[in-house]
Amino acid sequence: MPSALHVVDSSSATDEAPSIAAAAMTLAELAARATVPLERLIGPILHPTVTLLHAPPGAGKTILAHEIALAVATGQSELATAPLPGWLCGPPRGVAIIDGELPLDELKRRLASTERGRRAEIHLLANMELKVSQDKLIDLSQPDQRAELTTWLLAIRPKIGLVILDNLTALTSARYDEDSATGQREINQWQAELRQLGISVLLVHHDNKSGSQRGSSAREAICDLTIQLARQLAEPIYLAAFDVIFRKARFLQAAPKNFSAKLVAGRWQFAGAESGLLSRLLVHMAATEEWDWRAIAQDLGISKPYVYLLHRRAVTAGLWAPEWGRPRRRRKSEPTRLPERT
After folding, report:
1. Which fold has domain 6-13+35-271?
2. Is the confidence at residue 15, as pLDDT, over 60?
3. What pLDDT shows up at residue 46?
4. How far is Cα of residue 204 from the mean position of the Cα atoms in its chain?
5. Beta-carbon count within 10 A of 202 CB
6. Rounded to an integer, what distance in angstroms lies between the CA atom of residue 66 and that of residue 214?
7. What is the pTM of this model?
8. What is the pLDDT of residues 263-297, one digit of tens each?
9. Contact 38, 46 (CB under 8 A)
10. pLDDT confidence of 327, banded at 50, 70, 90?
11. Do the beta carbons of residue 139 and residue 176 sit within 8 Å?
């Protein structure tokens, strides 16, 4: 996936940080500067970049994050087995997973079920292991711990190309206020430093009740790609079934396509996102039998125009039950007539 944007190669940097004046350059100097082009990591995720993956609890965030980890580490993507979405991989890169909540036995079981014969060398750092061995938990809001994690990532061989932080709430203490932009900006700066060092970041986070990522909007400022998962309510709660919706995408020549994914018996199944959302709309209406676009938008995690678009598709396909009612049509406002002068 070629890109015209380049990042500055930090391998030639000196030990002493340059002053602001020394770091400034002209366009001609930038054109002559040796830079490193962005490369494909997997699908629309380029390297090195920062990606935010957010979803409601139980939607399948960790399962998708583990699939991405195994694909990047082996260069073999299960997500590329179907025409949609066709998430091809770049060359294999080292991967580190920093897990904040899963017990080791569950982490082992999930990774083994996702591996499916792919021999991957993934480095793990689990909060549960730290709690047992050192009575210490990871807190990304603390500068000393972020520095310690950076040192560890740079020391791991083979060189780490992707670090997955799963998830922000579990990897921060009660002292961290996720609604505060100040604390988030410090974590943003750390992610930007990792990106500059050639390490891509996948930050896993939770949704709020309105369907957006929880907490400060400053969290998305550093992100190059934002992915939201919307759970498919018609599927059993134990099954990983979700719609993948892209909220933000930098550096790509074409917008990535939303899609639906479901993990059945260890194998991924894909469909267009609209068909998945349409099914969820019908489930919602069957349960409520009352048209309320605000409730639908919140339930499905979509915008108002998308709600009306899905309604038209359901009516056209003959799927809209008469007892569900229909949205009121907007009346075209007549032009205001000025009073005639006497």
Report:
1. Rossmann fold (3.40.50)
2. no
3. 94
4. 7
5. 26
6. 22
7. 0.76
8. 888 788 887 766 667 877 888 888 888 888 888 88
9. yes
10. low
11. yes
Residue type, 335: P
Angstrom distance (rounded) from CA 89 to CA 78 = 10
Q: What's the token pair of residue 120?
A: 């991957």
The two structure tokens encoding residue 149: 């994690």
Domain residue extents for the chain: 6-13+35-271, 277-324
Query: Can you give the three-state secondary structure of the chain, one letter per residue?
Result: CCCCCEEECHHHCCCCCCCHHHHCCCHHHHHHCCEEECEEEECCEEECCEEEEEECCCCCHHHHHHHHHHHHHHCCCHHHCCCCCCCCECCCCEEEEEECCCCHHHHHHHHHHHHCCCCCCEEEEEHHHHHHHHCCCCCCCCHHHHHHHHHHHHHCCCCEEEEEEECCCCCCCCCCCCCCHHHHHHHHHHHHHHHHCCCEEEEEEEECCCCCECCCHHHHCCCCEEEEEEECCCCCCCCCEEEEEEEEECCCCCCCCCEEEEEECCEEEEEEHHHHHHHHHHHHHHHHCCCCHHHHHHHHCCCHHHHHHHHHHHHHCCCCCHHHCCCCCCCCCCCCCCCCCC
